[in-house]
Amino acid sequence: MIKQNQKLVNKAMVLTDIVAIITSFLFTWYIRVHSGIIEVQGGILSFREYLVPVLIMVPIYILIYNFKRLYNSERVIFMSKEIVNIIISNVYGIILFTGVLFLTKQIDYARSVLVIFFVVCTVFTSLERIVIRLLMRRARKNGYNIRHTVFVGFSDGTKKFYKLINENKHWGYKVLGIFEDSEIKYEDLKYLGDLDCLGEFLGKNRDVDEIIITLEMKDYDKLKAIIAACEKLGVRAQIIPSYYKYLPAKPFVEEIGGIPLINMRYIPLDNILNKAIKRGVDIIGSSIAILLFSPIMIITAILVKTTSKGPLIFKQERIGLNRNSFVMYKFRSMREQDPDEEKENWTVKNDPRKTKVGNFIRKTSIDELPQIFNVLLGDMSLIGPRPERPFYVEKFKDEVPKYMVKHQVRPGITGWAQVNGWRGDTSIEKRIECDIYYIENWSLTLDIKIVFLTVFKGFVNTNAY
């Protein structure tokens, strides 16, 4: 059974984490004392005096890892997310470590040891998790640590999830078949009988780890009996609602008088603390960006003014947070044009309105740099959905489902859609899909990821005309 297998895996992960933490300290000690990389001045504490606090911290680190869900049996978690959780856990760990040293008055404990230990422990633990993940993938492909699953009910959700399972064999799902009142034939999915046969099947097949309920809405009156059959035999039950397409990626459920209410559009940035953190990062980040990019902006300003007639800064009305309009700034990249023409004309390939300098600064996204001042003013954020002109907002709100959801957060200079290649003259639907993913899954970690992706692949825009 998967429960026993997973317990062994979790125990192995705890053990390897302990080994990684202690090995990290030994490596840190070598770097600090014996490698010669760091010059040691004066006397140092003994190996034992350095080791004891680390051994005290080991169970605390394990508790932090558990708190950050690093021992949960989440088969579909991305490696990048797991590494981010390791980094965050180690930050918490080193803060507590420093606190313990302060409270115990360990003033001679070299602070460089803490810094080196943090870096080494993060690297070692991440490598250990990568190795475990690779081993688990191989084991699952060879038939070990498999989650035996049964579908109950046939719907669009069944098709989509079954396709995902088949495309991702490393998740370790094995679908035994499906129960449905009318016999169905779908790919190689085995028909096991009608819904009334579920209880008998579970009683005879103790290797079933979970059932996934994918009933159509019309069959929801049978839910009670299905769940009762699962609970009677201790089988885990999960449900893909027939209306799953309308639910957010991370549904927020609140309870009122014992009745659960699902918020159809959970937005983390509605939280006042999250909002304050993001705004604080925007103010600090935009201030640093102004200093960092000021040489490029000065050179661009000179080139724009000396190579074509017209204003330096192109100002245009855009729609932002809560559908409020604001003036967005760009370096002018086109010849002067009639305001009405500008409002309704989409930039196209080989657009004759572009200047020579404008073509370059659009391709390299340098024309967007003045928007840093929009961020500082509070009209925009460093990261978020790209704002659009009023004419196109009115056009797309009737043509593109969920288009107006993007206005529930501040627009950004770059965003999840842009780093995934959906910028310029590309699919509006795909852009909105990415925007909604960002809005529903916002975190400081995701913002940092987008910044790095923008730096490494987002500046040069092959779709910029």
Automatic annotation (TrEMBL):
The chain crosses the membrane at residues 12-31, 51-71, 83-103, 109-132, 283-304. It comes from the Bacteria. Keywords: Membrane, Transferase, Transmembrane, Transmembrane helix. Pfam families: Bac_transf (PF02397), CoA_binding_3 (PF13727). The keyword Repressor does not apply. Residues 278-458 form the Bacterial sugar transferase domain. Its EC number is 2.7.8.31. Coiled coil: none annotated. GO terms for cellular component: membrane. It is a multi-pass membrane protein. GO terms for molecular function: undecaprenyl-phosphate glucose phosphotransferase activity. Signal peptide: none annotated. The keyword Transferase applies. Gene3D superfamilies: NAD(P)-binding Rossmann-like Domain. It is found in: Membrane. Belongs to the bacterial sugar transferase family. This is UDP-glucose:undecaprenyl-phosphate glucose-1-phosphate transferase. It comes from Clostridium vincentii. The lineage of its organism: Bacteria, Bacillati, Bacillota, Clostridia, Eubacteriales. The gene is wcaJ.
